Amino acid sequence: MRRKTKWYASALGLTTAGALVLSAGGASSHGYTDLPISRQKLCQNGTVTNCGSIQWEPQSVEGPKGFPGSGPADGQICNGGLGQFSQLSAPKTPSGGAWPTTRVTGGQNYTFRWQFTAMHATTDFRYYVTKPGWNQNHNLSRSDLNLTPFFTVPYNGQRPPSTLSHSGRLPTGLSGHHVILAVWTVHDTGNAFYACSDVTF
Length: 201
Description:
Residues 30-199 form the Chitin-binding type-4 domain. This is Chitin-binding protein. By secondary structure, this protein is of the alpha+beta class. The protein has one domain: chitin-binding protein cbp21 (Coagulation Factor XIII, Chain A, domain 1), CATH 2.70.50. Helix content is 16%, strand content 32%. Strands 2, 3, 5, 6, 8 and 9 form a six-stranded mixed β-sheet that branches. The chain has a three-stranded antiparallel β-sheet with strand order 1-4-7, with no helix packed on it. The radius of gyration is 19 Å and the shape is globular. The termini are far apart.
């Protein structure tokens, strides 16, 4: 009887530990942008190599919400403050080259697209862009960005479909290489998802 009790307790412990592991993994799987293509998606599709674990989970760049007043620290914005994805915040790819860019035109409408693996209740989607003359030689900081979003999509606590597109006007007065920061704010947790896309105006 004592052996059976011990075995049951051990099995229960393993089951509980497994559930916690699954729960933690599931909690980190949510969404990313592929229009304009984000750094994490470039890693996932093999356009950029040697990215580390983000290549298998481009949807997992989750950090504290409240940007720009709170959220990830300067220098860690593109990786959501997650050390295992630090490659995403570097000014160069892990191979040392420039991040590939998407060509866009200021003042025109652009269709932004998110892909989701978990459709959370959503507060909004916000899009920020770097300022003219921003410092391209260091990890992205708030001082590099216009901290007023150029496009906001309220979502009022609704859950998005697995693929969501919305069209908004790109800012004018920009030329050359810039970074668009997309922030998806989850309604019922303390977190948001971050995606940086390199573009050429």
